[in-house]
TrEMBL record:
The lineage of its organism: Bacteria, Bacillati, Bacillota, Bacilli, Lactobacillales. Coiled coil: none annotated. One of its GO terms (biological process) is DNA recombination. This is DNA repair protein RecO. Residues 8-78 form the DNA replication/recombination mediator RecO N-terminal domain. SUPFAM superfamilies: ArfGap/RecO-like zinc finger, Nucleic acid-binding proteins. The keyword DNA repair applies. One of its GO terms (cellular component) is bacterial nucleoid. Involved in DNA repair and RecF pathway recombination.
Length: 261
């Protein structure tokens, strides 16, 4: 079990909780050590010097002491900024919380996974903060993180014959795509339409740092949500609290629309 002083890392503040009378425990997703919880002495005192650096959805450079086991410590921070829109909008907040919650479950205690994915996750939050469609950005992260959960669908070709020139559907039984010739092998395939399949395949390879713009029809968004819920529920099986809120937002939308019609 190691302990490392004066380590510099990039981080995103994930959550925090009051601790004792004046202190706080702050969980940060770091680019080098995965998710770590920091003991911040005096954080609840008025005029605390690192106040801005430990607000939820703040990102920046942190320097401190990292312990493999137990709590870590922050001594200095630099260039910290908050994702403003995310911190002020309850809906964006839910998507960002879900992405970070999913990442936490995906990485567990494997800092190398966190390092590998840190830039994509930070970019996802940045894009949501810049008004990119949060549902689509979330779908992209969901597709990309499947591998961390041990679900690695082949998005390139039919799982049975390897053909890539026929219409596809997704089969959980075969752990990936099935071409039309092999649809009969799995009657429980997800019966996804062409556009949904197209975007799932795109999402698996897209680099968020190179994303310029993206917009999808409501029906395609709905189908992507349904497909990923199915895959996550039956093949991944993780629970992230913020997801429930996102699902509820979906049904509120429906209720409001029905009332207006
Ligand atoms: Zn096939």
């Amino acid at each position: 079990m190691g302990s490392y002083s004066d380590e510099e890392f990039t981080g995103i503040v994930v959550s925090r909780q009051d601790y004792r009378e004046r202190d706080m425990l702050v969980t940060i997703l770091t680019d080098r050590f995965g998710f770590k919880t920091f003991f911040i002495r005096g954080a609840r005192k008025r005029g605390f010097r690192m106040q801005a650096a430990i607000l939820p959805f703040t990102h920046g450079t942190y320097i401190g002491k990292i312990n493999d086991d137990g709590l870590s410590f922050i001594t200095t921070t630099r260039e910290v900024a908050q994702y403003q829109e995310i911190s002020q909008d309850i809906e964006l907040n839910a998507y960002a919380s879900y992405i970070l919650g999913l990442a936490r479950q995906a990485f567990g205690n494997q800092p190398d996974l966190a390092s590998l994915w840190f830039t994509q996750l930070a970019t996802a939050l940045q894009l949501i903060d810049e008004d990119y469609d949060p549902a689509i950005i979330t779908n992209i992260i969901e597709v990309k993180l499947l591998g961390c959960f041990g679900v690695q669908p082949n998005w390139q070709a039919c799982a049975v014959c390897g053909r890539d020139d026929l219409p596809f559907d997704y089969s959980e039984m075969y752990g990936g795509l099935l071409c039309q010739e092999h649809w009969h092998l799995d009657e429980h395939r997800l019966h996804l339409d062409k556009r949904t399949i197209y975007f799932l395949r795109q999402f698996s390879v897209v680099d968020l740092t190179k994303l310029n713009s993206i917009s999808l029809k409501e029906t395609t968004k709905h189908n992507l949500r349904r497909a990923l819920d199915e895959i996550y529920n039956s093949q991944v099986g993780v629970y992230v609290k913020a997801k429930k809120f996102i699902d509820q937002m979906g049904s509120w939308d429906k209720i409001l629309k029905n009332k207006n019609n």
